[in-house]
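Protein of interest.
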Amino acid sequence: MSRFVTALLACITAAALAGGAALMPTTAKAAPASKADKAALKTAIVTCKAQAKDQKVKWLARRKYVNNCVTQALKDRPHIDVMDVLRNHPDMKDLPIEKYDAS
C-alpha cells in the first residue's frame, strides 16, 4: 500500500474512534452517600465477609455470597445503589472474581 492510503486509513480510523467516543452516553453519577450510609455499608461488608468465612464458603463463590448478603443487609436503604458501590468499594477488591467461560 502506498503511504497516502495508509495515512488516509489511519485518519479515518482515528476519526471513527473519536466520533464513537464522543457519541457514547455518559453515565449518571450517584449522589454522594452520607456518613451513616457509608458506616452501614462498611459494617455490612465486614459482617458478611465474616459470615462467609465462618460458613466456609468456597473461595470463588465468596464474592457472590458477600454481594448477596450486603444487598440483603442494605435492603432498607433503597437510595443506595448497592451493586455499583460494591463494584467500586475498596474493601471488596481483595475478593476473588468468578470468570465464566462462555464456550
Observations:
- Helices lie at 3-23, 35-54, 62-73, 82-88.
